[in-house]
Amino acid sequence: MDKYEVVVIGGGHAGVEAASVASRYGAKTLLITHDKSKIGEMSCNPAIGGIGKSHLAKEVDALGGLMAKAADKSGIHYRVLNSTKGQAVRATRVQTDRDLYKLAIQELIVSTKNLTIKEGSVIDLDIDDLKIKSVKTDSGEKIFTKSVVLTTGTFLGGVMHTGLEQSPGGRIGDPSSEKLAKKLRKLNLSVGRLKTGTPPRLNKNTINWDLLSPQSGDTPTPLLSYTSNEEERPKQLDCFMTRTNKETHKIIIEHLDESPMYSGVIEGVGPRYCPSIEDKVMRFSERDSHQIFAEPEGLNSDLIYPNGISTSLPLKAQEALVRSIKGFEKAEIIRPGYAIEYDYFDPKGLKHSLETKEIEGLFFAGQINGTTGYEEAAAQGLMAGLNAALQTNNKAPLILRRDEAYTGVLIDDLVSLGTKEPYRMFTSRAEYRLILREDNADMRLTEKGKELGIVPDLLWKTYLQKKELSNNELERLKKEKIKPNSPEAEKIHLLSGETTSNNISLLEILKRPKVFHHHLPQGENILPNNVIDEIEASVKYEGYIKRQKADIEKLQRNENTPIPSSLDYSNVVGLSNEVKQKLTEARPESLARASRLPGITPAAISLLMVHIKKGRRLVG
Amino acid sequence: MIDSRTIIAPASASGRGGISVIRMSGPLSNKIAKEMCGELAEPWRFKKCNITSNNGSLIDVGMVVFFKSPYSYTGEDIVEFHCHGNPMIVNLIIESALVLGAVVAEPGEFTKKAFLNDKIDLAQAESVADLINAQSESAIIAANSSLSGNFSKQVNGILDELTEARVFVEANIDFPDEDIDRTHMENLNERLIKLLGVVSGLLTSVQDGVKLREGYSVAIVGPPNAGKSTLLNLLARERVAITSDIEGTTRDLVRVPVNLAGLIIEFIDTAGIREDPENSIEEEGISKSIEVINKSNITLVVQDSTSVKPFNVELGESIVVMNKSDLMKESQPNDKNAFYVSSVSGEGVPELLSELIKKLEVDEGGETVFLSRKRHEECLIKGRDFIDESLEGLRQDLGLELIAENLKESHNVLGEILRPMSSDDLLGEIFSEFCIGK
Ligand SMILES: Cc1cc2nc3c(=O)[nH]c(=O)nc-3n(C[C@H](O)[C@H](O)[C@H](O)COP(=O)(O)OP(=O)(O)OC[C@H]3O[C@@H](n4cnc5c(N)ncnc54)[C@H](O)[C@@H]3O)c2cc1C
Predict the structure, then answer these.
(1) CATH architecture, domain defined by A561-619
(2) CB of A75 closer than 8 Å to CB of A42
(3) Checking DSSP bridges between strand B254-260 and strand A213-215, what pairing results, if any?
(4) Nearest CA in chain B to A558
(5) Which range (A166-175, A287-296, B91-100) has the least confidence?
């Protein structure tokens, strides 16, 4: 009877992944968004990846998602951050051509089977008996569905600020979603306000490039997706750097009372990391300079994105501050920077599947959950879309654990702890950082995806090949030894300070600090970098990973002890009122999750364990 | 619910009675016991054996008994060591078991295991909860009181220092592109070496503290001829101090270990302290007395109740004892806070002793004090080793993420003592330290 199994509202980064995965799974899916031509639009910085974020993008890729592929089709400047550190914290960052990125996403999504795309604005949700029934669009159409994935980004009650002027909107040039926001506020979900901002865009032709210092991309140039190839990639461009100075800071301080954040007009909470240049100047007054990357928005675009001076000062002040910067003396602002305030829903109201606890069949993903960033949105979109599709087919949801994926860390953090500021991924949020690497996202996830039927053939084939190459190479490293007195043996001795002998395998030698795969005698196959990275990381991290695995196992046992959702914490003997309140608020789904809440002591966990067991014994 | 922890703790309060029982429960207990006692007898049978440490040296001659799962208190494999009631021996046995893979039991953990394995019935569940709570509370109190504010101050200092080091390391990992001040990284090595020293130092003092505290010492002071030595003789039930009626006879310190309700308490009789000693020998005795007062857990100030003399020596925790109550005339004033005893008749002595035990905070807290200190020791050892490993990593030029890993582990275990830190707290520290953002 239902017309659709999954309806995705919003064609941003969360929405496209949700729609794509639901249809890959085979669910009859509809994507409704304001404007088809804006599907895949990057509201802010045209870049994908970076530390922690590239890990998310790779995970989405390993499950057949779109983001990394689109980034490779539009990438004009690639860098590997932390390249001097170990594999676990190396991260690819791709600057993209904004238009090419959007185009790539649209191409990928349009060709998806089982998916219908519709233009329109959703103004109402029909909920009956705490179950989602249908959605209503502004053209009056009523669309029946078993589940809804809401990915409306910054559009709910969005208000943009430039100086003390404000206007409603979801992003520059787009309307905000007022009616839907009103509807949602009436539901029993807890709403908050957050803010973020973006810098002005400059005219490329008005910048004195000679005064800026160039920074070229990395060679060899990496790829973000496991299945992209070199040929798809556009031409590469350089980035440029400059800095703010004392004069810039003086201008900012003079105009501070016109900044909506400092004049108190914006009440939403911004992130603790400094999003705006106003924040940077005020909070770190001892610094008289901050760096700026001048990033091209595209191959044929005249827009330059000055990364580092996000601001919501009035246009006049923006002009003055931009022109105080070396190289920008005559720069013309094409589009002013602005701050945006919007509604988000406390993600503690979500299950780990990203379904709302309150309303069956209603899933939330992306910025609406209090996150910021394309990759964070995409990862949630994928999980919410998949879980919506699974649920409509009466299947258990896919829930990734903290030791399996950054996606798992992201969702677990959100739904267990909530967030008070725009949440962004950092590697330090992951306790199993050494296991969650760029080089092994496919090893961690692709088989799971394959079992669920959401992994495209090309990805599966690539994965199998990589696995085989990697296994063969490991076998070789275990078997082969270095000939004593050979030039290689000499080299290893020099590097590691230890001699080699007839009975030490290459694998053992690779364990030594300062010895890397390329120092060893090579086999017949030429190995792709990600295979070498995976082998090197698993060998070098072995001891640490063993330790972490032991931790995980311990945690796993508690993870497997569910806390009944009906549990009344006020009845748990021995818990302090403070702990009772925290648990009642957070409603953790398992003992392990309870133990990760701040302020929950091991003694409290023991008390809970006893209480749960008691309940079980009463029943059976 | 399977539980892989093998836990260990003394089952009788520390030092009480002629023997001590140490109980160990969990999957490794049989194996650990075999390594320490050789082949065990069949289950539920005692075996007399040499209890040896993990490296094979003899600790004590005692008994060992194995309770095979599921027929044991906790429902798991349990081993009990019965050894001589000496805190040092108990400590050594537990330490060896820890090295061999056991961990120190958490408050109420034996009972919790028993409950989870259906070994105690539902009605008892409430009391399990109470037990966990009471014991963890008293462990906290014990941790605070027995290890003094100074201990938590030092741990806090270590945690602050670790946080700072981690802020630099993590910021360098998560924000390599930001222009943050990288000079901090240059002296990371130096910082960590210093930190290692501080942690090792604290560990040594905790370990010394453990040894000190397992025996208690009580100083006996007071004006000359108040009857300190007679009181001590009564406590020891044998004449140890020389007594005479001439003031100032007790020139040298007399130390008498007394087994009081299973507790080993060392009473130290000091030279009588007077305001103005006539000769230098006396003076020397007095400075010795002051030293003893400072080192002991508690001081008994003994006065002659028939002629109370002013006594102005700085004391820590103390109990005033009015001796010679048998000679007291009815009309004399009664000091409410003092204990009136007669060291000739023994009158009032039991009351004094129970007050003494209460003041030493050893009656109920005894076990938990011991365990909580043991846990601190464990945390400090692990924390130290992880810092050491991160230093080794720096020396070998390993990736920064591995240094970070060891610092995190160190922070985790040391944080258990006082305050754990979440990754989000750490990010907060990074953001307040460095200007980070697009
Ligand atoms: C000004 C600004 C600055 C930002 N700065 C940064 C930054 O510096 N760093 C960073 O990582 N991230 C930044 N972001 C955030 C980043 O753009 C978002 O996190 C990301 O795009 C969120 O993806 P999403 O899918 O949740 O939502 P969006 O990409 O915002 O997509 C929402 C989609 O939903 C559609 N929609 C909304 N309401 C309806 C409706 N009722 N009916 C139908 N369709 C609807 C919209 O048309 C849109 O296509 C910024 C965003 C803005 C607006």
Answers:
(1) Orthogonal Bundle (1.10)
(2) no
(3) unpaired
(4) B1
(5) A166-175
Length of chain A: 620
Q: Give the contacts of B353 (CB within 8 A, at least 6 positions apart).
A: B260, B261
ipTM: 0.88
CA distance A299 to A310: 23
Contact B428 A611 (CB under 8 A): no
Task: Determine contact: A511 vs chain B, CB below 8 A.
Answer: no
Q: Which residues in chain B (114-133) have CB-CB distances under 8 A to chain A? A: 115-116, 118, 122, 125-126, 128-130, 132-133
- Reduce the secondary structure of A327-394 to three states and give it as a string: CCCCCCEEECCEEEEEEEECHHHECCCCEECCCECEEECCHHHCECCHHHHHHHHHHHHHHHHHHHCC
Residue with tokens 């619910």, as numbered in its chain: B1
Q: Mean of the pLDDT values across residues B185-213?
A: 81
Query: Do A89 and B109 make contact, defined as CB atoms within 8 angstroms?
Result: no
Topology match between the domains B7-120 and B223-359: no
State the pLDDT at residue B135: 56
- Could you please state the CATH topology (level 3) that the domain comprising B7-120 is classified under: Gyrase A; domain 2 (3.30.1360)
> Is any Cβ of chain B less than 8 angstroms from the Cβ of A619?
no
CATH superfamily of A3-198+342-452: FAD/NAD(P)-binding domain (3.50.50.60)
Q: What tokens were used for A400?
A: 């990734």
Task: Say how far apart CA A85 and CA A543 lie, in whole Å.
Answer: 18
SS3 labels along chain B: CCCCCCEEEECCCCCCCCEEEEEEECCCHHHHHHHHHCCCCCCCCEEEEEEECCCCCEEEEEEEEEECCCCCCCCCCEEEEEEECCHHHHHHHHHHHHHCCCEECCCCHHHHHHHHCCCCCHHHHHHHHHHHHHHHHHHHHHHHHHCHHHHHHHHHHHHHHHHHHHHHHHHHHHCCCCCCCCHHHHCHHHHHHHHHHHHHHHHHHHHHHHHHHHCEEEEEECCCCCCHHHHHHHHHCCCCCCCCCCCCCCCCCEEEEEEECCEEEEEEECCCCCCCCCCHHHHHHHHHHHHHHHHCCEEEEEEECCCCCCCCCCCCCEEEEEECHHHCCCCCCCCCCCEECCCCCCCCHHHHHHHHHHHCCCCCCHHHHHHHHHHHHHHHHHHHHHHHHHHHHHHCCCCHHHHHHHHHHHHHHHHCCCCCCCHHHHHHHHHHHCCCCC
- Residue nearest (by alpha carbon) to ligand 1 atom 16: A373
For residue A62, what are the CA distances in angstroms to A9, A455, A458, B309? 24, 8, 11, 87
Return the residue whose CA atom lies nearest to atom 50 of ligand 1.
A44
Q: What single-letter amino acid sits at B435?
A: C
Cβ separation A613–B106 shorter than 8 A: no
Q: What residue spans define the domains of chain B?
A: 7-120, 127-212+371-431, 223-359
**Look-up: residue for tokens 């050594």?**
B92
Q: What would the two tokens of residue A415 be? A: 């739904």
- The type of residue at A549 is K
Domain positions in chain A are 3-198+342-452, 201-338, 481-545, 561-619
For B363-399, how does the pLDDT look when each residue is reduced to its tens digit (9 = 90+)? 333 445 566 677 788 889 999 999 999 999 999 888 8
Whether A431 and chain B come into contact, CB under 8 Å, resolves to yes
CATH 1.10.287.3510 fits B127-212+371-431, yes or no: no
Q: In angstroms, rounded to a whole number, what is the distance separating the alpha carbons of residues B162 and B173? A: 16
Whether B214 and B208 have beta carbons less than 8 Å apart is answered as: no
Burial classification of residue A478, based on how many CB atoms lie within 10 Å of its CB (0-12 exposed, 13-18 middle, 19 or more buried): exposed
Provide the pLDDT confidence category of residue B341 given band limits of 50, 70 and 90: confident
Which residues of chain B are within 8 Å of residue A271 when distances are taken between CB atoms? 437
Per-residue confidence (pLDDT) for residue A597, from 0 to 100: 81
